């Protein structure tokens, strides 16, 4: 664990996260998820976590490992056709991870496609454009899901569209 990462997490406040992802931004993100899900049978969840607690940092918890845990905790895996995708933002790191269920995961979608979506959002976040970056990322994920649709048809909206603040 690097000291700079530890300090970034310790100094990130809930106020900073709420300022970056305010009510207007969260509403726009929810609208983007809803609109994008109308174009493909996948299910998108968007989650933002301000910072990791010190014990998790000390233990070396990676953003990817945390994203996998959040994927499980939010039940993104619990869709009829295993077509859930989590977009996880770790605010203190300005990092993004995408975790896709097996119906749309790495067996169907090359990891480089998901990584490109993450890099797109991270570039916007570094410039302080959090809502714009989130929406661009959601649209990029929707584009991937449209190119690699799950093998089964859409069964409706199975996961909430509202973003989650952890």
UniProtKB/TrEMBL annotation:
Pfam families: TPM_phosphatase. InterPro entries: TPM_dom. Residues 27-142 form the TPM domain. This is TPM domain-containing protein. It comes from Solimonas marina.
């Amino acid at each position: 664990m690097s000291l700079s990462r530890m300090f970034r997490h310790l100094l990130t406040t809930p106020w900073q996260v709420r300022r970056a992802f305010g009510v207007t931004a969260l509403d726009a993100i929810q609208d983007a998820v809803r609109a994008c899900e109308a174009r493909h049978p996948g299910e998108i969840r968007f989650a933002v976590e301000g910072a990791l607690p010190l014990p998790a940092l000390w233990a070396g918890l990676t953003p990817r490992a945390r994203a996998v845990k959040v994927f499980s905790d939010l039940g993104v895996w619990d869709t009829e056709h295993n077509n859930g995708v989590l977009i996880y933002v770790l605010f203190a790191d300005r990092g993004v991870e995408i975790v896709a269920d097996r119906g749309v995961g790495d067996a169907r979608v090359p990891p480089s496609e998901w990584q490109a979506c993450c890099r797109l959002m991270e570039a916007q976040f570094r410039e302080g454009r959090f809502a714009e970056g989130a929406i661009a990322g959601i649209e990029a994920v929707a584009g991937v899901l449209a190119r690699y649709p799950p093998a089964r048809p859409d069964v409706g909206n199975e996961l909430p569209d509202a973003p989650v603040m952890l």
